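Our example copied in:
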Amino acid sequence: MNWRIPLFKMYWDDQDVKAVTDVIRRGNYWSMGPEIKELEEKIAQYIGKKYAISCNSGTSALHAILLAHDIGQGDEIIVPSFTFIATANTVVLTGAKPVFAEIEEQTYGLDPEDIKKKISKRTKAIIPVHYGGAPCKNIKVLREIANDHNLLLIEDAAESLGAKLKNKMVGTFGDAAMFSFCQNKVITAGEGGIIVTDSKEIYQKIKLIRSHGRLENNEEYFSTTRELDYIQVGYNYRISSLSAALVLSQFEKIDKIIKMRREKAKYFNKQLSKIKKILTPIESKDIFNVYQMYTIRFEDRKIREKMRQKLTKAGIMTKVYFEPIHLKTFYRKEFNYKQGNLPKTEELAEKVLTLPLYPTLTNNEMEYITDNIKKYHR
């Protein structure tokens, strides 16, 4: 459908075009070029972690983290069902079992009380998700639970680069964290991801996993004539130099992009919070939301679906982020999950709707969106 207002648009400028063009015109090192190391160093410094390792997607980044922490057959990993399916799929790809837990209603982060009920002798890690640009409000409690039960805490921060809880960066609470550079994220190269950690051992293991299990040390595959050794089986999870250059250029504008996103969200909050039957994202002094998505909540599914139809007719794209993973066909068949296993998650997923939000959204477009919502409620 040719939308009058799409759900998202990438923010770019001539600096981005030049960054990619410079790599192309260089004529070599379109893979494993100097941009990759520079990107990793800058993201590590920005988040406040010792190490960063780039990957070709957020999914491969999360998979590599799990493999590096030796998660596999027989292990159980607690995850939310209210997330993009990669959060659970990467667990399955290691041979472990995803155990779904409930979420809380404010930031849609994992519910600590339900997590306590789901911990077993097989549990090895908890993977909280920072939803839509907001920090999981109970992440510190989840850290304590993980410590008490000798579990790993791995942050799926795919959507929330730059988000903070009490001025502490998302990505600094867990043993490791990953961010995504997919096309609808805060900064993007179309695809890409990055891992942050303070562990040198995990950093070195992920470097092997990322590049075929190849031992490189100070030598890089395309820069040496010497045959390098392969000490384990690995994947090709590397990001290209072209993508790294684009993310680097985007990163130079991250504060500006976040500010623009927050300004759009502020307008929506002001306009839509006046409608009693709509719940806008929670704002508090402790939560710094970068608004990778703008998700509102209705009283029930019936009202939401009527609103979706109204907005679609007006050419405004909306989407439900997310339908519960445990109710997808694969997870029903493979792990016997069914309707009613996560009543709170299922109820919330029936009520949420994500509206268009991106840095270049104009005042006229925002007014058009809010006017259409107000007309329906009147």
Observations:
- The domain at 14-251 is CATH 3.40.640.10 (Aspartate Aminotransferase; domain 2).
- The chain has two domains: 14-251, 254-377.
- DSSP finds 13 helices and 14 strands in the chain.
- The longest helix spans residues 254-272.
